[in-house]
Design a protein that fits this description.
Blueprint (H helix, E strand, L loop, with lengths): L1 H4 L3 H32 L10 E5 L6 H17 L3 E5 L6 H8 L7 E6 H10 L11 E17 L7 H10 L5 E4 L5 H13 L4 E4 L3 H10 L4 E5 H9 L3 E6 L25 E9 L4 H14 L3 H10 L2 E4 L2 H21 L6
Parallel strand pairs: 1-2, 1-3, 5-6, 5-7
Antiparallel strand pairs: 3-9, 4-7, 4-8, 4-9, 4-10
Helix pairs in contact: 3-10, 3-11, 5-12, 7-12
């Protein structure tokens, strides 16, 4: 305090030095904020740059078709182009790994489904990405329930009859799926674990050939996506025994849920969602979430979702993160208890 009580040359010099230190410190803080602010907030994003929306499946599936429509509307709203890049292979894990390694700058997104993010990690062993720590959840696009269907040539009229027949002939009845590690396979495995029945799993290269062989009676049953199975059920070519949603489907009011036929905790819905690479700034995640939620309200998107059998959801990034963690834990138990291995 001496320089304040006794103004002198030395006191003034000390005060000036102190002020310079304060100014220098403030300048350093300002410079630091100028350097880090664009990386954290990126107020000019997307600045006309192209955003890549990676779909880890071949073109034509519901994740691809619906994702393209949502991506297009997000791009229009942001004033930029959002291109869809199909990086298929290894049950979706190739595309997921690509996005996990991408720069966390909001220009690379993963439009995916439950498989690579909640099932494959427990089925395939070590993956080149962490499905939870390697991503920032952005938004749920929608969910797809399934229908347990049998061909008309099968004698089963109810789930109970199917299970009873399987118990009477252990390992003789077969169920189809769109491939190893898919949510369709997991439902067949869950049915075995809950009932004690033993089935043969027959994996196909996609849902369509699996459904074709179910129609033809080559396999006894399958859990099929609503959009794929419903036209055949309504045309009288497939028999629906139960649905995997929590409530009965409006299109099939007389078909019970799995819960109603005695299967506890058998609510299974294949979700579609968007993720960004880990460490993507929260401001960008929130903006993307806002844009996707907006796109889900577009009449054209809602009409397409109805056609594909998708229930649009939206919601917050946290809701997606919670859903992913819950399903990951659920299918980890099923895979472990069933000693299921990737083939």
């Amino acid at each position: 305090m001496s320089h304040i009580l006794h103004p002198s040359g030395s006191g003034r010099a000390s005060g000036g030095m102190q002020r310079r230190r304060v100014v220098a410190a403030a300048g350093a803080l300002l410079l630091g904020s100028l350097v880090t602010a664009p990386a954290l907030a990126q107020p000019d994003w997307p600045a006309g740059k192209v955003i890549t929306w990676v779909v880890p499946y071949p073109p034509g599936g519901s994740t691809d078709v619906l994702g393209r429509n949502v991506a297009q509307r997000v791009g229009t709203s942001l004033g930029t182009n959002v291109i869809v890049d199909n990086k298929a292979g290894a049950t979706g894990t190739i595309g997921a790994a690509y996005v996990a390694k991408a720069a966390p700058d909001g220009y690379t997104l993963l439009g995916t489904s439950i498989g690579p993010q909640a099932i494959a990690p427990h089925l395939m062993g070590k993956l080149p990405y962490d499905p939870i720590a390697g991503f920032e959840p952005v938004a749920i696009i929608g969910t797809i329930p399934h229908i347990l269907v049998v061909g008309l040539g099968q004698p089963f009229q109810t789930v109970a009859e199917l299970v009873a027949a399987a118990k009477a002939q252990p390992g003789q009845l077969a169920f189809a799926s769109g491939g190893n590690g898919t949510i369709l396979q997991m439902q067949g495995e869950l049915l075995q674990q809950q009932t004690g029945a033993r089935f043969i799993h027959v994996p196909y290269k996609g849902d369509t050939p699996a459904l074709q062989d179910t129609l033809a009676g080559q396999v006894q049953f399958m859990f099929a996506p609503v959009a794929a199975a419903l036209p055949h059920v309504q045309a009288g070519k497939l028999r629906a025994l139960a649905v995997t949603s929590a409530q009965r489907l409006k299109a099939l009011p007389n078909v019970p849920t799995m819960g109603e036929v005695g299967m506890k905790d058998f609510v299974v819905e294949q979700w579609q969602a968007v993720f960004a690479p880990a460490r993507t700034p929260e401001a960008l995640v929130q903006r993307l979430n806002q844009e996707i939620n907006g796109a889900l309200k577009d009449p054209a998107v809602t009409a397409l979702a109805d056609k594909l059998g998708v229930t649009l959801v939206g919601g917050t990034p946290r809701q997606l993160g919670d859903l992913q963690k819950a399903d990951s834990a659920k299918w980890a138990r099923v895979i472990k208890d069933g000693n299921i291995k990737a083939e």
